[in-house]
Structures are given as C-alpha cells and as structure tokens.
Design goal:
This protein is an alpha+beta fold. It is built from three helices and six strands; from the N terminus they run αββββαββα.
C-alpha cells in the first residue's frame, strides 16, 4: 500500500469513518482506491479517492453515467468547457462511454496526503455541486 493510502486509511480509522470500500491493486504504481458516494440533490454520486506512488492523489466523482449523447453533445461540451475554464480545483470530462466525470487532482509531497485535505476537497466539491448540479442535469436532459 502506498504512503498516501496508508495515511488516508489511518485517518479513516482514527475518525471511525466506515463509508469507504478499499481496493489495493498491488500494481507497479501501488494504486489504492477508496470507493464511496457523495449525496447531491438526493442523488448518490459514485466517488473514489485514487492514490498511488505519485504526488497526484485524485478524487473522481461520477456525475452521471452515459450523460453524453448525440443530441446534447454540443451544449454539454460547451457547458463543461466553460466550467473547466472558470473553476481551478477540478475538471469535467466525458470518458469513452459518455460518462460525465469530475476530477480533482491534489498535489502533495510524497506520502503527505492527509484525511483533512481530502475532506476539505470533498467540501469544495459538494458545495460546487449543490449550486451547479441542476444546471448540469438540465443541459444533459434537454
């Protein structure tokens, strides 16, 4: 298990937080993923904290599966591009299956990831989504 994952796991244990499933991939990058959800407007959005032996732990939120469709492509991509230009801490994109994802990349020294930093970023993400989720959904469904 990489140092970031060890630190985050220790934080979760100390705070008695039991909302994450942990998967250690045991690969050359020592990737460990913490899976959970965040609640936004009554929806449970799949959320992962991805750690490895780099200085770039990542929080990824799946906003909606199969969000990108031919009929909404132009408007959705225009909206996401505008959001990406305006907000520094995270970026939106659609993967090869059309799933709408939000990534927040944390930059930390080797092994310096803290639970406080992860939860601080969760707060930033949730605050943003509570203000913007309905507008994103309107663009997807129109």
């Amino acid at each position: 298990m990489n140092k970031h994952a060890e630190n985050f796991k220790k934080y979760l244990e100390e705070k008695d937080i039991k909302i994450f499933d942990i998967k250690d991939f045991e690969d050359e990058r020592e990737t460990v993923v913490f899976q959970s959800t965040i609640a936004v407007e009554g929806q449970q959005l799949p959320t992962v904290v991805i750690t490895d032996n780099s200085v770039f732990p990542l929080i990824r939120v799946q906003i909606l599966s199969m969000a990108l469709k031919e009929k909404n492509q132009l408007e959705l991509l225009k909206l996401l591009n505008g959001e990406n230009a305006q907000y520094k801490p995270f970026k939106f994109y659609c993967d090869e299956n059309g799933n709408l994802l939000m990534d927040a990349c944390l930059v930390v020294d080797d092994g310096a990831l803290t639970g406080e930093l992860v939860y601080l970023m969760f707060g930033v993400i949730i605050n943003y989504l509570e203000k913007s989720y309905s507008e994103i959904m309107k663009t997807i469904w129109n």
